[in-house]
Amino acid sequence: MLSRVADALYWMGRYLERAENLTRLLLVTEDLATEIRGFNDKLAQEEWGELLAIFPVELRTTPGNGSESAALTYLSAFLASPTNPYSVLYSMKKARDNARAVREALTLEVFVTLNDAYRALEAAGRRRIEDVPAFRDTLSRDHGWCFLKLGESVERLHRAAVVLGVKLRSLGAPGPHKSLPVYYTQWRSVLRGLSSLENYRKTYGARMEPHSVIHFLVFDPTAPRSLRYGASTVKSHLDAISGGDELTPSGRLIGRIAARLRYDDMRVTTVDDAIPLVDEVAAEVAKTHDAIELMYFGT
Questions:
Q1: CA 293, 155, 71, 123: dihedral to nearest 10 degrees?
Q2: 285 and 151 share a domain?
Q3: pLDDT-based confidence at 2, cuts 50/70/90?
């Protein structure tokens, strides 16, 4: 496969995943901020502010006083801003641009649906990526598909590690002045933000214990959004592309991450234990991305 085509499909997968992740985080943050603003408006504003740690960008408009004003500022900046490189609209535009560059590698259904989704978002504000079945149903499962899914899985793993790093630092242990109901509501929102609340409840029931949430989101081998599962998925796509050659630079990097997440679960028992690990995962996934670009795209 031409490196130009592989590069475009890889980034198309990353941008689509980024748009879906951000849409979900905006919905979850809005729900949480609305729930807590009545008795702790400052905390509600801080929840919105954490988006800047996850998606580092300079806002053109400074959030006003109060969480409702902050919500309008952040929703405007991250949902439909054409200039914010992390906004949903921007990600959809970049995904469409990459699709245009490799029109010959896509089915008509994929191209038309992606174009329609972008135009609907541009006009109306939101179109959920998971509601676009053409991506699942019409593309051949060839090398192009592998690069598309590789980009998606790299973005998902990296962003999950970044989100966890930000949220774990914010939550920590419940202090004497922290409301326990709010504290556990925040943990529930972390699970929702990573599409993991229902799967967590299937494993742990209604119990919302920080240690259990950390173990589930970092080490669970079957949870689709856990770091361990994500590293395994990236490795599987790289193996499919390289023919199982684990000696490639990207294969070695992701292999080390996957091995650590497979065997380090007993060493991580607290929030403080988990923070260095999720930071390391985020950094190593960024290096894996660089190795992928160098080897397959020549950049």
A1: 80
A2: yes
A3: confident
